[in-house]
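It would be a great kindness if you could assist me with a short task in structural biology. The full record is reproduced below for your convenience:
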Amino acid sequence: MYTKILLSLILGLFLLTPFSSYALGKLGHQLVCQLSYDLLDDAKQHRLDNLLLNLTPATTKLINAYNYQKENSPINFAKACTWADAIKRDKTFDSYKPWHYVNVERNQDSVEPNDCKKDCLTSAIIYHSELLSVSKKEQDKVQALMFLGHWLGDIHQPLHVSFASDLGGNKVDVIPRHGQCKNLHWYWDQCLLYVEELPKNTTPFQLLYSQLTTQMDKVNTPLWQEMQVYNWANESIKLVRSEGFGYCKNNKETCLPLRGGKIEVTSAYHQKYHKILQERIVLAAHRLTSILIQVL
C-alpha cells in the first residue's frame, strides 16, 4: 500500500511537469516503464523501488539533468529508463552506443540469433536480463534494470531494427508534420508521439498515459524466454520494410533506399503510425513486465 501511495505522489509531480521540459523520446521510454511498473504486484514494485535507492548521487544528478529536473529529485522507474540516453555523452559508456540498435542486411526480412551475438540491441536485452537476475551487487543490478527498461523501448521502435547504410533512417530526410524532426528516425523517436488535438489543461503525457492504460488489458504476454527477443525484432523489421512506412522500397527480396528528396509526413501517416507506436509501447510495457516478474 505504501509503495502505491508513494508512486501516486511521484507520478503526480511528474504529470505536473511542463511538457516542453522533456523531449518526446524521453516520453516514449517513460511511458513504457511507467506502464510496466503499474503491472507489477506490490512486492515486485517494492523490490524495484529499493533497487533505485542504490543510485549514486552522481547518477541521480545526471538523470535529473537529462530530464530538466532538480538534481536531487526522486528517481522513479519511468525517469530511470532515460538513463541509457543520458549517458551517451559520457565516454565511459561509449561501448554501449551500438546496444541501442541491431542492423541487418537489406535482403533480410528477419533477425536471427547469429546476426548479432554481442554489442547490439537483441543481445543487450538478454545480457541485462540475466545480469539483473544473477548479479549479487546491487549497483550492477540497478544499472542492468535501467538499461533493460530502455532496451525494451528501443526494440519496439521499429527503426532501431533496420539497416546500417542509412543509420536506421537517420539519413532519410522528412518534412515533419509536427515538431522539428528532420529525419525519419528522429520523427519516430520523438515527433510521432505528438497528439493533434490536446484537451484543455491536459499535457501530452497525461493524455497518452490515460489512453495507453485503457489498452493494457488487451495484451496477453507469455512467460519470458530469450528467443522472444528475436520475435520482437522481427515485428519491427516487418514494419520498416512495409511500403507505407516510407523507409525503403522492396525490389524482389531487397529493401532499396528511397530516392527523390525529402519525404513529407502527411496527417494520414502521422495518425496511422501514431496509433501503431502506441501499440508498440503497450507491447513493450507488457514484455518488460514479463521479464521483471522472473528476474527481480
The chain has one domain: 2-295. DSSP finds twelve helices and six strands in the chain.
